[in-house]
Amino acid sequence: MNKALIITKNELLQFFTGLSGYIFISVFALINAWFFAMPLFVRGMASLSSFFSTTQLLFMVFIPIVTMNLISKEKQAGTIETMYTLPLKIHDFIIGKYLASFLIVMISIVPSLVHLLTIAFLGINVDYGIIFCGYLSLALTAGVYCGIGIFTGSITSNQIVSFIFSFLIILVFFFMENILVFFPMQFTPFLQYISITWQNSNLIKGVIDTRVLVYFFSLIFVFLWSSVNVLEAKTK
Q1: Any idea where the domains of the chain sit in the sequence?
Q2: pLDDT by residue (tens digit) across 62-73?
Q3: Per-position DSSP letters for 92-108, written without gaps between them
């Protein structure tokens, strides 16, 4: 695990060494600030609901951008072949890359605490339980999307292809609930269950269901496990 944390630390340092990391977080924060401020000034309503819904949409693009080069760059530079000769287990490599991407996304959400303070000062009868569940929903969704991004990066050395693959997989999970009418009725319960928007709809109501947590953590495990297996298969 220590080796995974070293990889995480190195990735974070690389991300925040140049301007690109700060620009990424600034753009992300400004877009969210705009959608938070609009209802506040237009309707005089201070609510985080627009922030949560907007962030869920932004994740579909921003997270594939964050993850698309984490493994692909190692393949293009040839350093991943060197990794196979080092006393470094592949699962440590994958976990390190995953944690780095997840932490970058979580750091990008930190500026939204300004919105939370605004709600605390201007809001009436603020339900902090629902707000907590909203942030939990973002964290779990980010966890799954980062896992998808790491997986697509493990199967291709092309960053653009990795971005497209991860975006398409995320798109399927996000819109699954909206295309249920095109499938036979007997598949509806299963397809609804794997819909990430349906799972999030339960969380944003302020109810933490263990089945929802099992769903998110299972998906994260599946994608990371698949990433490890893809890279291990290339060593044989």
Answers
A1: 2-233
A2: 999 999 888 887
A3: HHHHHHHHHHHHHHHHH
